[in-house]
Amino acid sequence: MSIKIGKNILKELGGYLRDKNFNRIYIITDDKVNELHFNYLKNILKGFDLRTYILPQGERSKSIDIVLSIYDDLIENNIDRNTAILSFGGGVVGDIAGFVASTYKRGLKYIQIPTTLLSQVDSSIGGKVGVDYGGYKNIIGSFYFPEATFIDPYFLKTLPTRQITCGLGEILKYGLIYDYELFEYTKDRLCNIYEKDLDVLLPIIKKSVDIKEEIVSKDKYDLGLRKMLNFGHTIGHSIETYYDFTKFNHGECVILGMTYESFIGKSLRLIDEDYFDEIYRTLKELMTPIKFNEEEIHDLMDFMRNDKKNIGENIAFVLPVGRGKVDVYYDIDDKMIINSLKGEWI
Ligand SMILES: NC(=O)c1ccc[n+]([C@@H]2O[C@H](COP(=O)([O-])OP(=O)(O)OC[C@H]3O[C@@H](n4cnc5c(N)ncnc54)[C@H](O)[C@@H]3O)[C@@H](O)[C@H]2O)c1
Fold this sequence. Notes:
Blueprint: E1 2-5, H1 13-19, E2 24-30, H2 31-44, E3 49-55, H3 64-76, E4 84-89, H4 91-103, E5 110-114, H5 117-123, E6 128-133, E7 136-143, E8 148-151, H6 161-178, H7 180-187, H8 190-194, H9 198-218, H10 233-242, H11 250-267, H12 273-286, H13 294-305, E9 317-322, E10 325-329, H14 334-342
Parallel strand pairs: 1-8, 2-3, 2-4, 4-5, 5-8
Antiparallel strand pairs: 6-7, 9-10
Helix pairs in contact: 3-4, 5-6, 5-9, 6-7, 6-9, 6-11, 10-11, 10-13, 11-12, 11-14
């Protein structure tokens, strides 16, 4: 799999596809990306036989119903194994397109063009594809790696502020789990990032992709080291599910999750006050933490108990243990979790 990153790198897509002898391309995108950027892509793909499937933007589209409807469209259009599937959009489009590519006719080649900051630094790397089902996120899915990923920061220019926050959450996560320097570098440049200064964003994207690739290459199928990427996700996923995937985006929930989970780390004296303050002050700038009431905490705990990362009854937590370092724990006392969610420390 090759990952190509750079300003205007997408201009190389046509040549790449010709070299690989793909002349039929099946593009999966969402209505927003289609409206903003399809013409740009179409110009780059002049001369190719294109067919496009447009799904409604948002997490609700990451469903088995949409997958079935794409299968119908693929069959109706006689799409065969010589066609490349091209995912053009954020993480929702990428996860669905990859899942369709991995299952239709036992696997079609696919190429990712991530257009959100989150998908450029995270979801387009690592081969996890799938859909939500029965109220559970990503519960149906597989591992399927794209032939190539083209990461072009050009697309970020149209990205709304909230989506920048989501990507920033994952970038700061890489810093906190693996590379404290990246955390420091990023937190000192939040303004430039929100202003979409590509000279600042590009090296941060490259570093984030390197980190994710390195972690994934050591644990392709998520059996060990990759678990560290779930920092912020135990509590984050429960918040995302509690609000039925509507109130907050995935990346926003990860930021909240990292805040509460860092508090647990501090309460267990895994990290010192100074480091906790540094994490807390940075994350608070992106997302204001919530003080949950008893009823809400009860529901959040239930969602955490159903998390697929758990072993038996024990909820899995990735907690900070030092600057740029985390570890996995399965024995966190419920009281500790409840205390962090009550937020009396906020
Ligand atoms: N596969 C993985 O390893 C992995 C990792 C992290 C997250 N995810 C998944 O990714 C999804 C979240 O991804 P996301 O944050 O990219 O969300 P998204 O795909 O829903 O995109 C967010 C919004 O931004 C819009 N958008 C996309 N590109 C744009 C652009 N250039 N300009 C303006 N608007 C644009 C979209 O239309 C959408 O409304 C979740 O489903 C999450 O579970 C997967």
